[in-house]
Backbone:
């Protein structure tokens, strides 16, 4: 009699030891935990989008509309000459594809820490080595340490989130160019992740053309389409075409593509929303900086990182705000340098007022 297959016998031990990506239950809360755009479409635009989605031939595989979306995105981001872009089911899928593409014996992926958790997770899932480089005490790049690590490990790929998550800051031009040049010397790809570009004062998309080893990653999630799951990767055509070979066929649904095309046709609406979010962010920063119990970090994104000063505890304040109906993110356990830190997504004016009320009560 054959033994029954057990989970432990067929699943990799390192996968079994991992923790799954957890999404908090947000029903009934003011949701300020996931860096989403808090605004919805106006009723007329909802009706117009509904008609377009209803007319889609769901019985057919995605076709020409995917190419239409690529062309529209190329125009939207001012795609440089001899550059291409590919689409992903969110930027998460593209991060996974990059890990697959560089997976050779001894390959290393490198990124600053704390940073977006999917860089490390995708490397580990693919069985690729990961080297994290600690940010300094102000959450800035430790350039000297990073340059030394690039020289020592000669990584296949280096991630630079611009702005960074969860710290919300942009790296300096000098730091960016120093790291990219060091990577160029050892043959490393650099992926600049501009997930929060709609809220940042700068983009690297034009500067990237100075180099042949730089790719740029973006998502429409922060643009206002988190539910659509649409990311795109930009880079020199000869590199992007190789990554495109491992992209699953039909990875973007016709519904996602049509919703993204609709949003890009009405991009002025979403750009206005981004401006409102930036205004609210700056107002929140000024309000939060009044509290002696908080260290408030600068932000170029739609989130704000706070460190609570003793005797306040992040876990207690997080729970206190949750009890008051406001859901934020306790990031204290993500990295040692985030000890006693909370991350708050910028919401609507009303949501932010309610959040401030809850926070004052907890402080």
Residues:
């Amino acid at each position: 009699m054959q033994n029954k297959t057990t989970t432990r016998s067929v699943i990799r031990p390192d996968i079994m030891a991992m923790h799954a990506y957890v999404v908090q239950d947000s029903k009934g809360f003011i949701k300020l935990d996931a860096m989403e755009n808090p605004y919805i479409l106006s009723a007329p635009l909802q009706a117009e989008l509904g008609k377009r989605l209803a007319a889609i031939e769901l019985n057919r595989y995605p076709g020409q509309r995917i190419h239409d979306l690529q062309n529209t995105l190329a125009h939207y981001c001012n795609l440089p000459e001899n550059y291409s872009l590919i689409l992903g089911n969110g930027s998460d899928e593209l991060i996974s594809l990059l890990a697959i593409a560089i997976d050779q014996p001894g390959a290393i992926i490198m990124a600053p820490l704390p940073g977006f958790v999917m860089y490390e997770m995708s490397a580990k899932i693919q069985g690729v080595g990961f080297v994290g480089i600690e940010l300094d005490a102000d959450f800035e790049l430790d350039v000297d340490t990073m340059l030394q690590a690039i020289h020592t490990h000669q990584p296949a790929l280096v991630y630079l989130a611009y702005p960074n998550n969860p710290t919300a800051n942009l790296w300096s031009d000098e730091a960016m160019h120093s790291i990219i040049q060091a990577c160029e010397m050892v043959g490393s790809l650099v992926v600049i992740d501009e997930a929060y570009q709609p809220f940042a004062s700068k983009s690297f998309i034009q500067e990237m053309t100075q180099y042949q080893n730089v790719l740029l990653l973006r998502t429409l999630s922060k643009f206002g389409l988190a539910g659509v799951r649409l990311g795109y990767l930009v880079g020199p055509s000869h590199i992007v075409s190789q990554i495109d070979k491992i992209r699953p066929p039909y990875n973007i649904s016709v519904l996602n593509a049509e919703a993204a095309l609709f949003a890009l046709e009405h991009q002025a609406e979403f750009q206005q929303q981004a401006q409102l979010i930036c205004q609210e962010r700056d107002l929140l920063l000024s309000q939060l900086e009044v509290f002696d119990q908080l260290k408030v970090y600068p932000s170029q994104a739609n989130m704000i990182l706070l460190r609570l000063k003793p005797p306040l505890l992040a876990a207690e304040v997080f729970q206190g705000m949750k009890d008051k109906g406001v859901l934020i993110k306790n990031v204290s356990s993500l990295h040692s340098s985030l000890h006693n830190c909370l991350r708050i997504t910028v919401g609507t004016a009303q949501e932010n007022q309610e959040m401030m009320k809850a926070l004052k009560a907890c402080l």
Summary: The mean pLDDT is 95. The longest strand covers residues 83-88.
